[in-house]
Design brief:
By secondary structure, the protein is an alpha/beta fold. The chain is built from twelve helices and seven strands. The protein is globular, with a radius of gyration of 21 Å. The structure holds adenosine-5'-triphosphate and fe (iii) ion.
Length: 318
């Protein structure tokens, strides 16, 4: 609440425009922590009402998903948003691990989600357990620190101690994720003094590499099921977004997989993978162009399944 006015003014100044030049105001409507959502919503409503501009409430995860359409240039290098619908999105962040079938703006089918921890949460816990430091790394801190350690390690040394999640016959066919078992296995491994010594950087690096590799294995295994299931739908791309999608090992794995299905892998640049304001603004543009303007009585949605977006719009136009 203290900083919003100067941030908004700073953005307008940096763009070299006047507030009156804006076409609309987009704001994160949910999901998220109620006090944070309210601070943004109040500021956005005030701006919109004073400037007499339309307001657009944005779903945080839709914004992660649609950023790819801002940052990809198509063959003619024109600014037609690409990839075109339908495409598969893997959203891997601090709070979510989702496989979505993106069918249009506001139209998502959730094919899979995590049954317990999000992948980013598990990565953060692993980085903490390994006592990595990330004070200087800013955004994406623990994940970036883990990736850096892993880049100096070998994954094969400890991989056998970290079983692939949901690999039993029945659960291997299920389109959901589970990262809590992997997290526990990692914790147990870290405390095995007969096997590892965290004062030795080689041990830390090898542990980080094994853990990162297992995360990639699990993500790829479930994504493969989703791609097989959607084979006949005319998919145009595989999109990976959210903070964890800035991990190069994970990107490489997804790239191999998408090639097998003849699809391009599209990932926003790392700075647009973790949370940012650009993705909210872009989603606002997409929704404005689709005529999905909200009214000033709009409320925040702290809990908001992404599949409900469809319904929300149906309700709004009814
Ligand atoms: P959500 O979008 O689900 O509400 P969030 O907004 O907190 O969660 P993001 O900002 O999208 O999440 O991503 C943060 C997560 O990404 C953190 O768990 C962070 O450790 C992880 N992350 C960032 N960079 C990397 C990287 N290079 N490798 C692995 N993980 C990373
Ligand atoms: Fe996020």
């Amino acid at each position: 609440m203290q900083n919003l006015p100067s941030i908004v003014q700073g953005a307008i100044d940096a763009a070299g425009i006047q507030a009156s030049d804006l076409d609309a105001i987009a704001v994160t409507r949910g999901p998220g922590l109620p006090p944070c959502l309210s601070a943004g919503m109040n500021a956005a409503k005030t701006l919109a009402a004073v400037l007499r501009k339309p307001i657009l409430g944005v779903h945080h995860m839709e914004a992660h998903a649609l950023t790819a359409r801002l940052t990809t240039k198509n063959a003619e290098n024109s600014h037609v948003p690409s990839p075109v619908f339908p495409f598969i999105t893997l959203l891997i962040s601090g709070g979510h691990t989702l496989i979505l079938l993106a069918q249009g703006v506001g139209r998502y089918k959730q094919l899979g989600t995590t049954l317990d921890d999000a992948v980013g949460e598990a990565i953060d816990k692993a980085a903490r357990g390994l006592q990595l430091s990330w004070a200087t790394q800013g955004r994406g801190g623990p994940g970036v620190a883990l990736e850096l350690a892993a880049s100096n390690g070998r994954s094969d040394r400890f991989k056998a101690h970290l079983p692939l999640p949901m690999s039993d016959f029945k659960r291997a066919k299920e389109l959901n994720f589970s990262f809590s078992g992997l997290k526990t296995a990692m914790n147990r491994l870290i405390s095995r003094q007969d096997l590892v010594d965290l004062t030795r950087s080689q041990d830390v690096n090898d542990l980080a590499a094994a853990f990162q590799e297992r995360c990639a294995d699990h993500l790829a295994a479930k994504l493969e099921l989703a791609l097989e299931q959607c084979r006949t739908l005319g998919l145009t791309a595989l999109v990976a977004s959210g903070g964890v999608a800035s991990n190069q090992t994970i990107r490489n794995r997804l790239s191999v997989l998408s090639q097998r299905f003849g699809l391009p892998l599209i990932c926003p640049p790392p700075e647009l993978c973790t949370d940012n304001g650009v993705m909210i603004a872009w989603t606002g543009i997409e929704r404005l162009q689709a005529g999905m303007v909200d009214d000033y009585e709009m409320t925040t949605m702290p809990r908001w399944p992404i599949e409900d977006l469809d319904q929300e719009h149906a309700h709004a136009v009814a």
